[in-house]
Specification:
This protein is of the alpha/beta class. Helix 8 packs across helix 11 and helix 15 packs across helix 19.
Length: 481
C-alpha cells in the first residue's frame, strides 16, 4: 500500500530494527529498508511479524510507502555510507521531505549535508541517539538538531519512543537541541563524557582490586552500595552486574577472562580533537582516550613489565595497614569528585562550541536529555539541571554551589587516593587529570608567565604585563647575566 507509513528507516542492524519495533509499539506505521534485501525479509518474518511495519525491497518502494512530507531515517554507518545513501535517496524525494541521520556522524559532515540539500528543499536532521540496543528498543535518549522546520514533523514520533523521566515518568529524554550539527555535537560530547566515566570507574576498580585486594564478590557489594548513593548511574549499575557473571567455559569470573585491551570507535577522540581546536581544556576525556590507546599496546606492556620496576612490596604493606572500609569510602569520594570534573569539562566544551558555531544551547535541557535512556544517565544530572536553571549563564559547573560544596567536601579524600595510587604504582590518569584540572582552574596564579617569557626569548612572541596594557617584547639575550 502506498503512502501508508508515518516514517521510514533505512539500515536494519540491531539498532535500526529496535527503533522500528519501538516506533511500531507506539502506534506508528514504519517502512523498513536495507541494502541487503534478505535482511528485510528476515526481519518481517521474525520480530516484525504482525506489526505495523512495511518491508521494502528498493528505495523507490520505500519512498512510495511514506506519507507526505516523507520522513526517511538513516541508521547506517557514519561517513561514506551515510553520504552514499543520501545521494541515492535525495533524487527521489521532494521539497519539504525530511532525511534524518541517526548515527554517530561527525557534526561538520551533518552541516555539509544540510547545505547540500537546502537547494532541493529537503530538510536534514542530524540526530544523536544514545542507549545502545536496549535503549533503542525500550526508550533511548534522542538529541535532534539540524533544520528546525523539520522538528514539528518528527517531534511526536521521537518524543513518543524516547526514554521518560520525572515524578510521573512523563518527561521525554528528547527535545530540540539546535541548528546545524548541534545534535551530533551534543551526542559526541555525551560519548566523550562516557569515555571519561568508564575510565574513572576502571581506575576505581583497579584501586580496589590491585590496591586493596578485593575479590569480585566484594567488588559487587561495593558497587551495589555506591549505586544506592550519589554515584547512582547506569554505568555503576552495569559494573556491579559484571562482577556477578561467571564464564561458562572456565567457571571463573567472566571479567577476569577478558583481555585488558580496549577498543574505541572515534567519538571520544573527536571530542578531544575539537577541544584542542576550540582551545578548551577537556583534559580528563583526552586522558581517557589515551588510556584506551595505551591498553591496546598489550604486547608492549607485557615486555615492559619484565624490565620496568614499580614500588617494591608497596601493595602488601598497604593491605596490612589500611582499614578496607575507610579506603573504599575514600575511593568513592575521589570517583565522585572526578566525575563532576568530567561533566564540567564536557559542558564547558559545549559552551565554547555554541559560541563558535552560533548555537543557542539549553544546557539544563541537555542534562535532562541525558537523564534517562543513555549510557551516562545518572542521578546527579538533576543537580546539573538545577544549576543551569538557577544560572543559565553559569561559566563552569564547578562554580555552582552544589558542586563547589561537594568538591570542597571530597577533595581531601581525592588527594589521598591520588597519592596512594602513586605510592602503589597504580595508574589512574583520569583521576589525576581531574584533580589537576580542579587545581589549575581554581589557581589565581599559574606559572605560565615563565612560559610566555620563554616564548618571547626564543621566538619574539611578545607578552602582556601585569601593570600596564599592551604587548611587549624584550631582547633577553642582551639583558641576561
Amino acid at each position: 500500500m502506498a503512502e501508508q507509513c508515518d516514517i521510514g528507516l533505512i539500515g536494519l542492524a540491531v539498532m535500526g530494527q529496535n527503533l522500528i519495533l519501538n516506533m511500531a509499539d507506539h502506534g506508528f506505521t514504519v517502512a523498513a529498508y536495507n541494502r541487503t534485501i534478505s535482511r528485510v525479509d528476515e526481519f518481517l518474518a521474525g520480530e516484525a511479524q504482525g506489526k505495523s511495519i512495511a518491508g521494502c525491497h528498493s528505495l523507490e518502494e520505500f519512498v512510495r510507502n511514506l506519507k507526505k512530507p516523507r520522513i526517511a531515517m538513516l541508521m547506517v554507518k557514519a561517513g561514506d555510507p551515510v553520504k552514499h545513501t543520501v545521494e541515492q535517496l535525495a533524487p527521489i524525494l521532494g521539497p519539504g521531505d525530511i532525511i534524518i541521520d541517526g548515527g554517530n556522524s561527525y557534526f561538520l559532515d551533518t552541516e555539509e549535508q544540510i547545505r547540500n540539500l537546502h537547494e532541493q528543499g529537503i530538510l536534514y536532521l542530524g540526530v544523536g541517539i544514545s542507549g545502545g540496543e536496549e535503549g533503542a528498543r525500550h526508550g533511548p535518549s534522542i538529541m535532534p538538531g539540524g533544520a528546525r522546520e523539520a522538528w514539528p514533523q518528527v517531534k511526536p514520533i521521537f518524543q513518543a519512543i524516547a526514554a521518560k523521566v520525572g515524578p510521573d515518568n512523563n518527561i521525554p529524554c528528547c527535545d530540540w537541541v539546535g541548528p546545524g550539527g548541534a545534535g551530533h555535537y551534543v551526542k559526541m560530547v555525551h560519548n566523550g563524557i562516557e569515555y571519561g566515566d568508564m575510565q574513572l570507574i576502571c581506575e576505581a576498580y583497579s584501586l580496589l582490586k590491585d590496591g586493596l585486594g578485593l575479590n569480585n564478590d566484594e567488588l559487587y557489594d561495593v558497587f551495589a552500595g555506591w549505586n544506592r548513593g550519589e554515584l547512582d548511574s547506569y554505568l555503576i549499575e552495569i559494573t556491579r552486574d559484571i562482577f556477578s557473571v561467571t564464564d561458562e567455559k572456565t567457571g571463573a569470573p567472566l571479567v577476569d577472562m577478558i583481555l585488558d585491551k580496549a577498543g574505541q570507535k572515534g567519538t571520544g577522540k573527536w571530542t578531544s580533537q575539537l577541544a584542542l581546536d576550540l582551545g578548551v581544556p577537556t583534559t580528563l576525556i583526552t586522558e581517557a582516550v589515551f588510556a584506551r590507546s595505551l591498553s591496546a599496546l598489550k604486547e608492549n606492556r607485557v615486555q615492559a613489565s619484565k624490565v620496568l620496576a614499580g614500588p617494591h612490596n608497596a601493595g602488601r604493606e598497604f593491605r596490612e595497614t589500611v582499614i578496607p572500609e575507610e579506603f573504599i569510602n575514600l575511593v568513592r569520594q575521589a570517583l565522585f569528585a572526578s566525575k563532576i570534573c568530567s561533566y564540567a569539562q564536557g559542558f564547558f566544551q559545549l559552551q565554547a562550541a555554541a559560541k563558535e558555531y552560533g548555537w543557542d544551547l539549553d544546557y539544563g535541557g541537555i542534562a535532562m536529555l541525558w537523564r534517562g535512556g543513555c549510557i551516562i544517565r545518572a542521578a546527579f544530572l538533576e543537580d546539573i539541571k538545577r544549576a543551569y536553571d538557577r544560572n543559565p549563564g553559569l561559566e563552569n559547573l564547578l562554580l555552582a554551589r552544589y558542586f563547589t560544596e561537594t568538591l570542597n567536601a571530597n577533595q581531601a579524600a581525592w588527594r589521598q587516593v591520588v597519592c596512594t595510587a602513586a605510592q602503589l604504582g597504580i595508574p589512574i590518569p583520569a583521576m589525576i587529570a581531574a584533580l589537576n584540572y580542579y587545581d589549575s582552574y581554581r589557581a589565581e596564579w599559574l606559572p605560565h608567565n615563565l612560559l610566555q617569557a620563554q616564548r618571547d626569548y626564543f621566538g619574539s612572541h611578545t607578552y602582556e604585563r601585569v601593570d600596564e596594557e599592551g604587548s611587549f617584547h624584550t631582547d633577553w639575550r642582551k639583558l641576561k647575566r
